[in-house]
């Protein structure tokens, strides 16, 4: 039985309108696009609040169906065991790529898996917010540790108000991993998975990491761009009148 078969069997427990809401609200489509309460409400000529109420009602039923499905439980366990790494964490885009390579799972079927993850008790899906991209964890407890680690990393850059070389960034993440997970070993892939989950950080063309607003990461004026190039090349600044 494919993951789509499992999903189709699950939504047969809902009427046509409820099935439509589930697919649109949770992005069960090749693009993974989640439609807003307003947009869905407009298509049915009802209020945003009415759609929210219906979604909450459906969520209770979905939760029971997902957690009592042996097939879904097997899928979740397989992914947790084989793809979550040492930290029990994966950024959404990373997990999607890993499952595409390892399980030949296309985007549509990945978004079905994401839907299962939102409700399954053995996995935790963290929705994007103003600070972080979407990510998965093997438990809610792990997600708390990850968020604290990410926040500490971000505030480190705010505090120093400067850029860091790649090896310096790795050291910052390593210290945070040791503090929050009591781990000494990990993969470089996991380090940068954590780092790129933070929306406000970026790497410039010269390999330096920093806040996206920093002039060495996103130089706006010509003088800032010239300064960054010369500073990176360690050349003296000479200006002619």
Question: How does this structure look, described?
Answer:
The protein contains 11 helices and 5 strands; from the N terminus they run H-H-H-H-H-E-H-H-E-E-H-H-H-E-E-H. A hairpin with a 5-residue loop joins strand 4 and strand 5. It is mainly alpha-helical. Helix 2 (16-25) packs across helix 4, helix 3 packs across helix 4 (48-67) and helix 8 packs across helix 9 (166-181).
As a whole number of angstroms, the C-alpha radius of gyration is 22 Å
What's the helix-strand series?
HHHHHEHHEEHHHEEH
> Uncertain spans, ≥5 residues at pLDDT below 50?
none
Q: What is the count of DSSP helices, taking H or I runs of 4+ residues?
A: 11
Whole-number mean pLDDT: 90
Distance between the termini: 75 Å
Oligomer: single chain
Largest sheet: 3 strands, antiparallel
Alpha-beta classification: mainly alpha
Percent of residues in helical segments?
A: 55-70%
Tell me the strand order in the biggest sheet.
1-3-2
Would you report the number of β strands? Answer: 5
General form: globular
Q: In percent terms, what proportion of residues is strand?
A: 5-15%
């Amino acid at each position: 039985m494919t993951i789509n078969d499992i999903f189709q069997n699950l939504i047969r427990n809902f009427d046509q309108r409820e099935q439509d809401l589930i697919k649109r609200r949770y992005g069960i489509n090749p693009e993974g696009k989640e439609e807003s309460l307003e947009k869905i409400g407009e298509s049915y000529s009802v209020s945003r609040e009415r759609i929210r109420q219906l979604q909450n009602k459906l969520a209770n039923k979905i939760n029971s169906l997902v957690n009592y499905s042996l097939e879904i439980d097997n899928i979740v366990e397989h992914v947790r065991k084989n793809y979550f790494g040492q930290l029990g964490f994966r950024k959404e885009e990373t997990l999607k790529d890993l499952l595409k390579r390892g399980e030949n799972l296309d985007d549509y079927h990945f978004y079905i898996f994401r839907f299962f993850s939102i409700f399954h008790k053995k996995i935790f899906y963290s929705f994007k917010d103003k600070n972080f991209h979407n990510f998965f964890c093997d438990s809610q407890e792990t997600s708390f540790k990850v968020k604290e680690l990410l926040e500490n990393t971000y505030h480190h850059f705010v505090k120093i108000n400067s850029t860091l070389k790649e090896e310096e960034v790795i050291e910052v993440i390593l210290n945070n991993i040791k503090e929050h997970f009591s781990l000494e070993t990990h993969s470089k892939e996991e380090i940068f998975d954590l780092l790129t989950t933070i929306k406000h950080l970026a790497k410039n063309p010269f390999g330096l990491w920093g806040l996206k607003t920093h002039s060495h990461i996103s130089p706006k004026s010509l003088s800032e761009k010239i300064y960054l190039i010369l500073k990176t090349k360690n050349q003296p600044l000479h200006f002619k009148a």
